[in-house]
Batch of 4 targets.
Target 1
Amino acid sequence: MKIVIVGAGISGISTYLHLLKHLPNPSAHTLVIYESHKPRSSSPSAQPPADSATFDSLSQSTQLVGGGLGISPNGMRILLTLDKALHDAVAAQGFCVENFIFKGANGWTLGTQKTGDGKVKAIDDKEEFCIASSRHGLWETMFKHAIEVGGSGAIKYRRVVSIVREANEGAGIVVKFEDGGEEMVDLVIGADGVKSVCRTALFGTEEKYAPKYIGQSGVGGFLSLPMSSIVASKAMTFTFGPNGFFGYSSSGPTPPNLMWWSTFETSSVPSIKDMDAAVIKKALVERHKNWKDPILHDIIKNADVESVYPTWTVPELPHWGERGIVLVGDSCHAMDPTTGQGASQGLEDSKTLALLIAECLKRAETEHRGIETEKDAVDLAIKLYHEIRSPRVAEIVERGKKLAGKKANVGPVMEYVTYFFLWLMMAVPSIGKFLLGDVLRSLNTWSAEEEVHKVLQKLEDSS
Ligand SMILES: Cc1cc2nc3c(=O)[nH]c(=O)nc-3n(C[C@H](O)[C@H](O)[C@H](O)COP(=O)(O)OP(=O)(O)OC[C@H]3O[C@@H](n4cnc5c(N)ncnc54)[C@H](O)[C@@H]3O)c2cc1C
């Protein structure tokens, strides 16, 4: 089979590695990733490349967005089961966050939450924590691993412009490139992010399937500042205020390693003039001038704004693929960053899809229960993949919607209502569970292997 993955972000690279690991006879298949953007420089503080000069291009690739992110324990477990060396390398270049500290702009500490999954995992299982990392650090570690495992040809730099199914039943899928080239393939895996051309190939350009700007944008960057208190508390700090949100944490052992970000409300996608660094810095100072945390002020005083990003989400789609085209990660479910789950859900997608393709191909080899060809196997895998993954993602998206409003502009009454709500959820965990469900348990007890086993068993039982 010829398999093309479009996009070498976190989801694309992870899908590549999982397929190499799980396909019954990987050398019998051709597997390649096509990526449109050359990576930015190795330093997180380096200027983004020239083609990030428009918001449209920023939205096409989170690699260009840069900044930092937290990989939650469920995502780290996917990396652990994929390859321990990769997991350890991701953890080593990042910063192990054992606590989330929630604050109010007025200086109150509203609560602390442990990030570790020890409480809900078997006791002999080593506890996983949230790993804070520059996006580039995570991506580069995964990229190097993919090259080590798959060779230098694993990732090719070519922009895919469209994907077309051949008209006659059973024919292949044509991937068309910006350079005018074309390739006929059997399976296209769209890991091409929020502005996905693979999603367009499946759903066309209808507005109801297009990404939506959520009315919030963010700025962020990295600094070298003394941060013994941040490191000692092993914490990522989130501060909520009446006119936005501010977060900071260490991003790992190598300076500049104080990562920070600030989210603010803008009813429309910011215009290109808003990308002027001096304008952004002025707005940042203005926005947070009355906030009480001295670390926040130290950061803002020293900050150079490196990335600006409008936030997009992808609406719930009726399916995530059919007839040889399938989506993973942000291309099918870009979610509000408040969830802290975008990357981890991409990792879970990739493992689930690879396990299903592998299992269905094994059944095709023995022509088991009507699965006679590789095409049958792929179609079934795509269908089961959506069956497993969409309810999980929908639950996380819904929870994110409840929390996202807490970053919007509010008056003084709502500001204190927000503080009270956040305090209450952490001070009385049963109320948090009542409002949001048992988040820790539902995030960290999910297992791709178990879910795949269950759907295949159900299939056996029904036939
Ligand atoms: C501000 C912000 C903060 C976030 N914080 C967190 C967090 O703390 N924790 C978390 O888990 N998640 C977080 N996320 C979400 C997370 O970053 C994304 O969910 C994740 O990066 C998605 O990975 P992906 O590989 O699916 O997509 P992307 O990272 O967007 O990768 C898509 C890739 O496809 C390439 N591509 C696009 N179009 C084409 C084409 N036509 N041809 C070839 N290649 C193409 C792109 O260049 C890119 O490399 C955050 C997101 C944002 C915006």
Note: Residues 2-462 form a domain with the FAD/NAD(P)-binding domain fold (CATH 3.50.50.60).
Target 2
Amino acid sequence: MARIPAPSGYSSKAETSSEQAHSHAHAHALAQAETLCRASGARLTPIRRHVYEALYESQKPLGAYDLAEVLAPNGRRLAPITVYRALDFLIEQGLAHRLASKNAYIASANAAETQDTVAFLICESCGSVDEVSSQDLSNSLSTLLAQKGFRPKDKVLEITGQCTHCQSGSH
Ligand SMILES: [Zn+2]
């Protein structure tokens, strides 16, 4: 059952369909990120791009040190300040969010609609994080912020609790 090795840098044909779907979504997210940055005159440097990719790939919140680890599996780790700067950039571009309650970062699932307020539902039992957004929520918050004259950077609501899966589990 020897498989003909794919040429280096071209492995998508050998992947399973779900991996293919994910890598397709991944490519789409990256393209979207590039477009978003270009539109705002910002530059998605290789480091910023790698940090975004790592966050997107993990599909769960990662701390800055986890990121430094993921980005340097061969030991040549990025300096934390470099990771923090890249994260700051991604947050400003609406490509990532910081979850204060977990001191971790997560890629934005709807980077194209950065104006929408995002609420993260964080399960304290299994650690899953669900991202939800609502136009009504966004409008209400925008009104409140305007009344206070407050300029938001990262509009994130964190709601901790238990996901439906964990609620149904026997304790
Ligand atoms: Zn849960």
Note: The mean pLDDT is 81.
Target 3
Amino acid sequence: MNENLSSNNSDENQSRENWTKRAAEKWNEENVTEENFKQIVKFKARLLNAEIKNIDSKYYLQAVKSLQDKKSLYIQGKIGCGKTYFAAALIRDLWFSKRCTEEMINRGKYPWQNFVVYHDMLNLLQELREIYQGISRNVESAIIDECSNCDILFIDDFGIQKVTEWNLSIMDQIINNKYNNYTQLILTSNIAISKVAKNMDERIASRISEMSELIYFDRDDRRVG
Ligand SMILES: Nc1ncnc2c1ncn2[C@@H]1O[C@H](COP(=O)(O)OP(=O)(O)OP(=O)(O)O)[C@@H](O)[C@H]1O
Ligand SMILES: [Mg+2]
């Protein structure tokens, strides 16, 4: 937990503490290891380095409150502004501080195991495409099931994929399943949700809009200058 935040609204902090305590009872301490975290999130090295202490507490508070209110997150901003870093740091913080909702606890015997699934949008579609073209259709549906059933699905770079019928049908299945199961999404994107509706698909955009809180990163590219 980011210590900068301890002076914030005490009611909010109190309810967060209760939340964590109940989760902590259910979430076996011995499972909360770096090794399990790596295995579950399958983050690339760069994402594993992301730490919440480097994040502006304004965004962090907004994100935690939204997730606790069972909302998904749509993290939007310019190229290189830090969206992926933020989402990865947030997931690390949630996991290690065992922050989950009642629903997450009630859903599974082992909340730590199906807590989060991470995919880069392009890689996910590519992986599914290869499987689809091969013979193992049940692997394809296993990946879609895993995305659909996990508590939090983190899709990085949402919106840069080509708009093809096949891509849209995969995204529609996943987003619709999250929507219907009341499970959560963390999406990072360079484009506004209105543009997703216009250029990609209205059904998908409509569901994401209803489910999500917009976190807008108002800063320039960190990679240059
Ligand atoms: N809070 C931070 N503290 C330290 N480094 C950061 C922070 N946020 C981002 N970075 C670094 O800045 C660079 C850009 O960040 P990141 O990849 O998260 O941007 P992005 O918004 O996801 O970009 P894109 O739109 O291209 O996907 C990376 O090298 C990342 O490690
Ligand atoms: Mg990114």
Note: Confidence is low (pLDDT under 50) at residues 1-7.
Target 4
Amino acid sequence: MNNTISNWNGTDYRSIYLRQLKENPIYFDQDLNTWIVYSYAHCKTILHHSDALVPELPVNDKLNEKGRLLINKMVRLSNGEQHHAFRAAAMTVFQKLKNASTGQLLKELLADVSTTDGFDWVEVVAKQLPIRLILKGLDFDNEDSNYIAANLQSLARIMLPNKTERDIQLLNPVVEVVYYLAEKYACRLGLLTGENEMDEMAICNLIGLFIQSYDAGRGLLCNSLLNRTKCTSGNGTDWKKLVNETLRYDPPVHNTRRVAARDISIGGQTIKERDTVMVVLAAANLDDSVFIKPDEFDVMRSNNHEHLTFGLGGHNCVAKYFCIDMAVDVCRFIADNYPRIRILQKEFIYEPQLNVRLVKQLMVGLS
Ligand code: HEM
């Protein structure tokens, strides 16, 4: 029986995870040449383990200087002492974020489409709202926000481990402009000190927030909307519970990677130094030692917030509360303004990435 997911389309990933949780909570996958960790307890151990490091991204010589600087200084890709410093820089940027109105932004995004006839929620809302909330919250003007939002898909290619010629062609010019813009606003926000290293850290981690918001934010807004249609009680629904149950049961991020800096003993096995590990957060969320009847979508379960979808330990997501609030506000806005939601497609096609599970298109009608 095949346990390796090579494509989300038509794959019943929950059955695979549930089977692996029972049969192989941690095992070495020969095909992928990596350890795969499924159980909640083992995922937790790896995420907290000081010898389980975030793997380095291979350096691509054709990436321009600003692109290489980004890779070197983004918190998401760093380890050890550097990670502490970069995380502090990312948190400082995040603390500057003012509350922008999700409802107002959503109104603006929906103004250009016929909500009743149907529109693609992915393009119109999910790819736009997270980045626009961040940009608005940091006082970016409309022109600069439009540039960043329009080019974020290209910018996010910086996280690809194996960049093609095409990726580099798209990335290089965008990184230059976004770096220039980020420096301008970092200065306005009082984030720059005049000390080169520190300033680069602030600028790169401001850009890092844009990049990190893209895939996962998009996926959360799609999955929340889809699960929102399962709740018939409208405004009586506890939106925060709905969003947390969505994050547990139907997460946008499925796994994250680590590499062993030394031998790690876990579950009677030894992960050898330099072995890589795939931590399947989405499987841990289905572990019946933590969640009763894990395969049921149950908004009312008492511990749905215990999911691992935002990671754990030193690298856990800096934006988790921001993301939950954003999705809750979207659910509330839709409930207040559009009593009827129609999902206008029966089948979904997914993006090819395997660390996240993202629908390519989500046609909806709101009335
Ligand atoms: C506005 C949106 C978001 C921003 C700005 C953001 C930002 C970040 C940053 C900066 C990190 C790196 C933290 C570190 O290494 O110390 C991170 C990690 C992470 N984020 Fe987010 N994030 C966002 C949305 C999300 C969403 C929606 C999810 C999942 C639903 C998510 C899941 C994760 C996970 C799993 C990690 C940990 C990765 C690991 O440990 O390897 N993020 N996020």
Note: The chain has a mean pLDDT of 96.
